[in-house]
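thought: user wants a sequence for this fold. calling inverse folding tool.
action: design(structure=
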Protein backbone atom coordinates (compact mmCIF):
# COMPACT_ATOMS: atom_id res chain seq x y z
CA UNK A 1 0.00 0.00 0.00
CA UNK A 2 1.46 3.31 -1.05
CA UNK A 3 1.50 5.11 2.30
CA UNK A 4 3.48 2.38 4.12
CA UNK A 5 7.26 2.54 4.19
CA UNK A 6 9.26 -0.65 4.50
CA UNK A 7 9.43 -0.15 8.28
CA UNK A 8 5.68 0.53 8.44
CA UNK A 9 4.96 -2.65 6.48
CA UNK A 10 7.11 -4.58 8.98
CA UNK A 11 5.08 -3.01 11.80
CA UNK A 12 1.82 -4.08 10.13
CA UNK A 13 3.17 -7.63 9.84
CA UNK A 14 4.00 -7.62 13.55
CA UNK A 15 0.53 -6.36 14.52
CA UNK A 16 -0.97 -9.02 12.28
CA UNK A 17 0.99 -11.76 14.07
CA UNK A 18 0.14 -10.72 17.65
CA UNK A 19 0.17 -12.09 20.31
CA UNK A 20 3.22 -13.85 18.81
CA UNK A 21 6.05 -12.06 17.06
CA UNK A 22 6.76 -12.72 13.37
CA UNK A 23 10.01 -14.18 12.14
CA UNK A 24 12.39 -12.90 11.13
CA UNK A 25 12.08 -9.84 13.37
CA UNK A 26 12.88 -6.42 11.91
CA UNK A 27 15.65 -4.29 13.33
CA UNK A 28 14.46 -3.03 16.73
CA UNK A 29 15.28 0.70 16.50
CA UNK A 30 13.54 1.17 13.15
CA UNK A 31 10.58 -0.94 14.25
CA UNK A 32 9.98 1.02 17.44
CA UNK A 33 10.40 4.34 15.62
CA UNK A 34 7.64 3.26 13.26
CA UNK A 35 5.50 1.94 16.13
CA UNK A 36 5.72 5.22 18.02
CA UNK A 37 4.87 7.19 14.90
CA UNK A 38 1.77 5.04 14.41
CA UNK A 39 0.67 5.17 18.05
CA UNK A 40 1.31 1.52 18.97
CA UNK A 41 4.75 1.69 20.57
CA UNK A 42 3.49 0.37 23.90
CA UNK A 43 1.68 -2.51 22.22
CA UNK A 44 4.85 -3.58 20.43
CA UNK A 45 6.94 -3.20 23.59
CA UNK A 46 4.59 -5.45 25.56
CA UNK A 47 4.71 -8.10 22.85
CA UNK A 48 8.50 -7.86 22.69
CA UNK A 49 8.83 -8.33 26.42
CA UNK A 50 6.29 -11.16 26.52
CA UNK A 51 8.47 -13.00 23.98
CA UNK A 52 11.52 -12.35 26.26
CA UNK A 53 13.34 -10.62 23.44
CA UNK A 54 16.32 -8.42 24.31
CA UNK A 55 16.62 -4.79 23.27
CA UNK A 56 19.75 -2.64 22.93
CA UNK A 57 20.33 -1.12 26.42
CA UNK A 58 19.93 2.51 25.33
CA UNK A 59 16.69 1.73 23.47
CA UNK A 60 15.45 -0.31 26.45
CA UNK A 61 16.01 2.63 28.82
CA UNK A 62 14.28 5.08 26.51
CA UNK A 63 11.27 2.83 25.97
CA UNK A 64 10.98 2.13 29.70
CA UNK A 65 10.97 5.87 30.44
CA UNK A 66 8.37 6.40 27.75
CA UNK A 67 6.23 3.58 29.17
CA UNK A 68 6.27 5.13 32.64
CA UNK A 69 5.39 8.54 31.19
CA UNK A 70 2.46 7.01 29.30
CA UNK A 71 1.15 5.42 32.51
CA UNK A 72 1.26 8.81 34.23
CA UNK A 73 -0.39 10.54 31.25
CA UNK A 74 -3.14 7.90 31.10
CA UNK A 75 -4.03 8.37 34.77
CA UNK A 76 -3.97 12.15 34.35
CA UNK A 77 -6.28 11.85 31.33
CA UNK A 78 -8.71 9.69 33.32
CA UNK A 79 -8.65 12.19 36.17
CA UNK A 80 -9.45 14.99 33.73
CA UNK A 81 -12.36 12.99 32.31
CA UNK A 82 -13.70 12.51 35.85
CA UNK A 83 -13.62 16.29 36.39
CA UNK A 84 -15.34 16.82 33.04
CA UNK A 85 -17.97 14.23 33.95
CA UNK A 86 -18.77 15.99 37.22
CA UNK A 87 -18.89 19.37 35.44
CA UNK A 88 -21.30 18.13 32.76
CA UNK A 89 -23.45 16.29 35.31
CA UNK A 90 -23.81 19.50 37.33
CA UNK A 91 -25.03 21.24 34.16
CA UNK A 92 -27.49 18.37 33.48
CA UNK A 93 -25.67 17.47 30.26
CA UNK A 94 -24.70 14.13 28.77
CA UNK A 95 -21.85 13.41 26.36
CA UNK A 96 -19.78 10.65 24.80
CA UNK A 97 -16.03 10.29 25.26
CA UNK A 98 -14.64 9.38 21.84
CA UNK A 99 -11.51 7.26 21.26
CA UNK A 100 -8.86 7.98 23.89
CA UNK A 101 -8.44 6.38 27.31
CA UNK A 102 -12.01 5.13 27.69
CA UNK A 103 -11.59 3.18 24.45
CA UNK A 104 -8.28 1.86 25.78
CA UNK A 105 -9.88 0.87 29.09
CA UNK A 106 -12.33 -1.33 27.19
CA UNK A 107 -10.15 -2.88 24.50
CA UNK A 108 -6.42 -2.70 25.35
CA UNK A 109 -4.78 -5.25 27.66
CA UNK A 110 -2.71 -2.42 29.17
CA UNK A 111 -4.71 0.77 28.53
CA UNK A 112 -1.79 3.19 28.76
CA UNK A 113 -0.23 1.61 25.66
CA UNK A 114 -2.80 3.41 23.49
CA UNK A 115 -1.27 6.78 22.62
CA UNK A 116 -3.50 9.84 22.94
CA UNK A 117 -2.86 13.56 22.63
CA UNK A 118 -6.18 15.29 23.27
CA UNK A 119 -9.69 14.89 24.68
CA UNK A 120 -12.57 14.18 22.28
CA UNK A 121 -16.13 14.71 23.51
CA UNK A 122 -19.38 14.40 21.58
CA UNK A 123 -22.51 16.31 22.58
CA UNK A 124 -25.84 16.78 20.89
CA UNK A 125 -25.73 19.75 18.54
CA UNK A 126 -28.38 21.59 20.52
CA UNK A 127 -26.22 21.24 23.66
CA UNK A 128 -23.04 22.66 22.13
CA UNK A 129 -23.15 26.13 23.68
CA UNK A 130 -24.20 24.85 27.10
CA UNK A 131 -21.42 22.29 27.04
CA UNK A 132 -18.84 24.91 26.04
CA UNK A 133 -19.95 27.15 28.91
CA UNK A 134 -19.82 24.28 31.38
CA UNK A 135 -16.32 23.34 30.26
CA UNK A 136 -15.38 27.00 30.62
CA UNK A 137 -15.85 26.60 34.37
CA UNK A 138 -12.93 24.15 34.27
CA UNK A 139 -10.74 26.66 32.42
CA UNK A 140 -11.31 25.54 28.84
CA UNK A 141 -11.70 28.35 26.32
CA UNK A 142 -13.09 28.33 22.79
CA UNK A 143 -11.36 30.15 19.95
CA UNK A 144 -13.79 32.79 18.77
CA UNK A 145 -14.24 34.94 15.70
CA UNK A 146 -14.47 33.96 12.05
CA UNK A 147 -12.71 30.63 12.56
CA UNK A 148 -15.27 29.48 15.14
CA UNK A 149 -18.13 30.55 12.89
CA UNK A 150 -16.68 28.54 10.02
CA UNK A 151 -16.19 25.46 12.21
CA UNK A 152 -19.80 25.66 13.40
CA UNK A 153 -21.05 26.01 9.85
CA UNK A 154 -18.87 23.50 8.01
CA UNK A 155 -17.07 21.24 10.44
CA UNK A 156 -17.92 18.85 13.27
CA UNK A 157 -16.10 20.13 16.36
CA UNK A 158 -14.78 23.20 18.14
CA UNK A 159 -11.25 23.48 19.48
CA UNK A 160 -10.97 24.24 23.20
CA UNK A 161 -7.69 25.01 24.91
CA UNK A 162 -6.56 25.00 28.53
CA UNK A 163 -3.35 26.38 30.05
CA UNK A 164 -2.75 23.25 32.17
CA UNK A 165 -4.62 20.43 30.43
CA UNK A 166 -4.79 18.59 27.15
CA UNK A 167 -6.53 20.35 24.25
CA UNK A 168 -10.17 19.35 23.84
CA UNK A 169 -12.21 18.81 20.69
CA UNK A 170 -15.88 19.36 21.43
CA UNK A 171 -17.79 17.49 18.72
CA UNK A 172 -21.32 18.60 17.94
CA UNK A 173 -21.54 16.18 15.02
CA UNK A 174 -20.08 12.71 14.95
CA UNK A 175 -18.16 13.64 11.82
CA UNK A 176 -18.46 15.75 8.71
CA UNK A 177 -16.75 14.34 5.65
CA UNK A 178 -17.16 12.55 2.34
CA UNK A 179 -20.00 14.96 1.56
CA UNK A 180 -22.11 13.67 4.46
CA UNK A 181 -22.70 14.28 8.17
CA UNK A 182 -22.62 11.67 10.90
CA UNK A 183 -25.26 13.10 13.28
CA UNK A 184 -24.60 13.37 17.00
CA UNK A 185 -28.11 12.83 18.30
CA UNK A 186 -28.46 9.06 17.69
CA UNK A 187 -24.90 8.43 18.83
CA UNK A 188 -25.48 10.20 22.13
CA UNK A 189 -28.93 8.62 22.57
CA UNK A 190 -27.51 5.11 22.17
CA UNK A 191 -24.45 5.70 24.37
CA UNK A 192 -23.42 3.08 26.88
CA UNK A 193 -22.08 3.62 30.42
CA UNK A 194 -18.45 4.60 30.76
CA UNK A 195 -16.11 1.79 31.91
CA UNK A 196 -15.09 3.77 35.02
CA UNK A 197 -17.24 3.65 38.17
CA UNK A 198 -18.95 6.84 39.23
CA UNK A 199 -19.26 8.46 35.82
CA UNK A 200 -22.80 9.58 35.07
CA UNK A 201 -22.64 12.24 32.35
CA UNK A 202 -19.99 10.67 30.13
CA UNK A 203 -20.66 7.49 28.21
CA UNK A 204 -19.09 5.60 25.31
CA UNK A 205 -20.37 4.71 21.88
CA UNK A 206 -22.50 1.64 21.27
CA UNK A 207 -20.36 -0.87 19.27
CA UNK A 208 -22.07 -0.51 15.88
CA UNK A 209 -21.90 3.28 16.15
CA UNK A 210 -18.27 3.11 17.30
CA UNK A 211 -17.40 0.98 14.29
CA UNK A 212 -18.81 3.59 11.91
CA UNK A 213 -17.27 6.52 13.77
CA UNK A 214 -13.78 5.02 13.95
CA UNK A 215 -13.88 3.98 10.29
CA UNK A 216 -15.00 7.44 9.15
CA UNK A 217 -12.44 9.17 11.36
CA UNK A 218 -9.55 7.00 10.14
CA UNK A 219 -10.81 7.18 6.56
CA UNK A 220 -11.07 10.97 6.60
CA UNK A 221 -7.43 11.10 7.76
CA UNK A 222 -6.46 8.65 5.01
CA UNK A 223 -5.33 5.99 7.49
CA UNK A 224 -2.02 7.72 8.17
CA UNK A 225 -1.75 5.89 11.52
CA UNK A 226 -1.83 2.12 11.76
CA UNK A 227 -2.93 2.62 15.36
CA UNK A 228 -6.39 3.59 14.09
CA UNK A 229 -6.66 0.32 12.17
CA UNK A 230 -5.47 -1.52 15.26
CA UNK A 231 -8.26 0.13 17.29
CA UNK A 232 -10.76 -1.07 14.73
CA UNK A 233 -9.34 -4.59 14.76
CA UNK A 234 -9.71 -4.76 18.55
CA UNK A 235 -13.28 -3.48 18.33
CA UNK A 236 -14.30 -5.83 15.52
CA UNK A 237 -12.84 -8.81 17.39
CA UNK A 238 -15.39 -8.22 20.18
CA UNK A 239 -18.41 -7.54 17.97
CA UNK A 240 -21.06 -10.11 17.14
CA UNK A 241 -22.16 -10.73 13.54
CA UNK A 242 -25.40 -8.90 14.36
CA UNK A 243 -23.51 -5.85 15.61
CA UNK A 244 -21.30 -5.84 12.51
CA UNK A 245 -24.36 -6.00 10.27
CA UNK A 246 -25.97 -3.16 12.24
CA UNK A 247 -22.84 -1.06 11.76
CA UNK A 248 -22.92 -1.66 8.00
CA UNK A 249 -26.60 -0.78 7.82
CA UNK A 250 -26.11 2.45 9.74
CA UNK A 251 -23.06 3.40 7.67
CA UNK A 252 -25.05 3.03 4.46
CA UNK A 253 -27.99 4.98 5.91
CA UNK A 254 -25.69 7.85 6.92
CA UNK A 255 -23.83 7.81 3.59
CA UNK A 256 -20.56 6.22 4.75
CA UNK A 257 -21.02 2.72 3.38
CA UNK A 258 -18.05 2.85 1.02
CA UNK A 259 -15.74 4.24 3.70
CA UNK A 260 -16.64 1.39 6.04
CA UNK A 261 -16.28 -1.18 3.26
CA UNK A 262 -12.83 0.16 2.30
CA UNK A 263 -11.83 0.06 5.98
CA UNK A 264 -12.91 -3.58 6.16
CA UNK A 265 -10.64 -4.38 3.22
CA UNK A 266 -7.67 -2.75 4.96
CA UNK A 267 -8.34 -4.74 8.12
CA UNK A 268 -8.18 -7.92 6.09
CA UNK A 269 -5.12 -6.94 4.05
CA UNK A 270 -3.04 -5.24 6.71
CA UNK A 271 -4.05 -6.85 10.00
CA UNK A 272 -5.16 -10.26 8.81
CA UNK A 273 -8.80 -10.24 9.89
CA UNK A 274 -10.93 -12.99 8.40
CA UNK A 275 -12.71 -11.85 5.22
CA UNK A 276 -15.80 -13.93 5.99
CA UNK A 277 -16.22 -12.21 9.34
CA UNK A 278 -16.25 -8.78 7.70
CA UNK A 279 -18.29 -9.75 4.63
CA UNK A 280 -21.37 -7.91 5.93
CA UNK A 281 -19.44 -4.62 5.75
CA UNK A 282 -19.48 -4.84 1.96
CA UNK A 283 -17.04 -3.71 -0.69
CA UNK A 284 -16.46 -0.26 -2.21
CA UNK A 285 -16.09 -1.83 -5.66
CA UNK A 286 -12.87 -2.87 -7.35
CA UNK A 287 -12.13 0.40 -9.18
CA UNK A 288 -12.84 2.55 -6.12
CA UNK A 289 -10.76 0.28 -3.90
CA UNK A 290 -7.78 0.58 -6.26
CA UNK A 291 -8.08 4.37 -6.44
CA UNK A 292 -8.43 4.77 -2.67
CA UNK A 293 -5.49 2.46 -2.00
CA UNK A 294 -3.26 4.43 -4.38
CA UNK A 295 -4.20 7.79 -2.87
CA UNK A 296 -4.25 6.89 0.84
CA UNK A 297 -1.69 8.53 3.11
CA UNK A 298 -0.50 12.13 3.18
CA UNK A 299 2.24 13.01 0.65
CA UNK A 300 4.73 15.68 1.74
CA UNK A 301 4.27 17.80 -1.38
CA UNK A 302 1.30 20.13 -0.67
CA UNK A 303 0.02 20.08 -4.27
CA UNK A 304 0.18 16.30 -4.46
CA UNK A 305 -1.37 16.04 -1.00
CA UNK A 306 -4.29 18.25 -1.98
CA UNK A 307 -4.95 16.65 -5.36
CA UNK A 308 -4.71 13.08 -4.07
CA UNK A 309 -6.97 13.93 -1.13
CA UNK A 310 -9.62 15.12 -3.58
CA UNK A 311 -9.38 11.95 -5.69
CA UNK A 312 -9.31 9.71 -2.62
CA UNK A 313 -12.33 11.33 -0.99
CA UNK A 314 -14.48 11.41 -4.10
CA UNK A 315 -13.72 7.73 -4.73
CA UNK A 316 -15.22 6.85 -1.34
CA UNK A 317 -18.29 9.11 -1.43
CA UNK A 318 -21.44 7.00 -1.43
CA UNK A 319 -23.23 8.78 -4.27
CA UNK A 320 -22.92 11.60 -6.79
CA UNK A 321 -24.71 14.12 -4.60
CA UNK A 322 -22.25 13.49 -1.75
CA UNK A 323 -19.31 13.76 -4.15
CA UNK A 324 -20.64 17.07 -5.52
CA UNK A 325 -21.19 18.41 -2.02
CA UNK A 326 -17.65 17.49 -1.02
CA UNK A 327 -16.19 18.95 -4.22
CA UNK A 328 -18.00 22.25 -3.68
CA UNK A 329 -16.81 22.51 -0.09
CA UNK A 330 -13.25 21.53 -0.99
CA UNK A 331 -13.16 24.14 -3.74
CA UNK A 332 -14.45 26.83 -1.39
CA UNK A 333 -11.81 25.89 1.16
CA UNK A 334 -9.08 26.10 -1.46
CA UNK A 335 -10.24 29.58 -2.45
CA UNK A 336 -10.18 30.72 1.19
CA UNK A 337 -6.62 29.46 1.60
CA UNK A 338 -5.50 31.29 -1.54
CA UNK A 339 -7.12 34.51 -0.32
CA UNK A 340 -5.47 34.12 3.09
CA UNK A 341 -2.05 33.62 1.50
CA UNK A 342 -2.52 36.65 -0.73
CA UNK A 343 -3.75 38.99 2.00
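)
observation: tool returned 343 residues.
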Amino acid sequence: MTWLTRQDAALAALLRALPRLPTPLPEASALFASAERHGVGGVVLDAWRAARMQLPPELERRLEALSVAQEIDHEAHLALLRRIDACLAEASLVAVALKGPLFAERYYRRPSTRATSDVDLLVRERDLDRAARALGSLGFTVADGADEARLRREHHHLHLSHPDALPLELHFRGYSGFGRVLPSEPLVARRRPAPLPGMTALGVLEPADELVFLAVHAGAHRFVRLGWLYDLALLVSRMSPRELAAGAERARAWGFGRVLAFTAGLLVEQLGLAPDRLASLGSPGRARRVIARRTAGEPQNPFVRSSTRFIYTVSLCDDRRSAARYALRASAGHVRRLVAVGS
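thought: summarizing for user.
answer: Here is the designed sequence. The CA atoms of residues 269 and 282 lie 15 Å apart.
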